[in-house]
Amino acid sequence: WAVFPVFISMLGIIATSFVIVTFVRYNDTPIVRASGREMSYVLLTGIFLCYAITFLMIATPDVGVCSLRRIFLGLGMCFSYAALLTKTNRIHRIFEQGKKSVTAPRFISPASQLVITFSLISVQLLGVFVWFAVDPPHTVVDYGEQRTQDPMTARGVLKCDISDLSLICSLGYSILLMVTCTVYAIKTRGVPETFNEAKPIGFTMYTTCIIWLAFIPIFFGTSQSAERMYIQTTTLTISLSLSASVSLGMLYMPKVYIILFHPEQNVPKRKRSFKAIVTAATMSGKLTQKGGDRPNGEVKTELCESMETNTSSTKTTYVSYSNHAI
User: Fold this and answer.
1) Considering the domain boundaries, does residue 146 fall inside one?
2) What is the pLDDT of residues 188-231, one digit of tens each?
3) Domain range for 282
4) Measured on CA atoms in the order 231, 233, 238, 243, is the torsion positive or negative?
5) Inter-CA distances, 270 with 91, 95, 196, 280, 317, Å
6) Helices marked H in 59-190
7) Could you report the per-residue pLDDT of 299-325, keeping only the tens digit for each?
8) How far is CA 272 from the centre of its chain?
């Protein structure tokens, strides 16, 4: 039963390691810088942990293994979705601020983003430490339907003493981050695609939500099955691996493809000022307001002409934000 989860995890670990090596090697190229190097490495760490947890879940239970399961079970997802939530929140705040003024919002620097991300991750770690204090990890033998009156002939399964409720609580915070990130992805879906990676993040979150919606009935629907532990472990590990694969495939494989096979596209883009972001936010708002009254093509043409007029009429130099991934 463990062959398929291990196979997926091995492929995922190899692919994630390849992406990390590629990003490190081309660390100073425009595509890597534009994707937000610091946050990318945090997200890749989370993806790696999501794959690696499979080996802890199938290992022979003892106090050490049970302790590591508690720590890393939700940590990989927490790393991933804390990073994605911070990214989408940043995009949302930048364009919301751009609709109000030309002043950049606070806490959009890479250092600020790392502080926010690790603050979110620390909540998960705090919850795990509380879990350790309230209920120290240990193993139990689950006899299930194989319990007999004669203890010498009874056969059971050695497992970590983690109830379904404890498991859901461990994953609950990460799922909350995932849902919140999906909400922000929906809010930023109308942002011009030339300014950010909100759309790939959106597709990633929609797909991930579908995976976990399928996970819940399968996981809890096997509560009375004789093969309950094996089915639940397989379902959980495959769901984690699929979630990691979605993030890796949608967010990083296109970048790696361009870096390796189309280096001519890996060139610096035109520098963006915050004024340009303000203009894009304003035009996006106007497009939303006028879209219901006029044909789509007519509205876009009018707004494009308006943007060109505004661009040609101003000669003011603004501070560049090209070093910050948007």
Assistant:
1) no
2) 887 776 555 778 999 999 999 999 999 888 877 766 555 777 78
3) 274-313
4) positive
5) 19, 19, 14, 15, 14
6) 63-72, 75-100, 110-134, 164-187
7) 444 434 444 444 444 444 333 333 344
8) 26
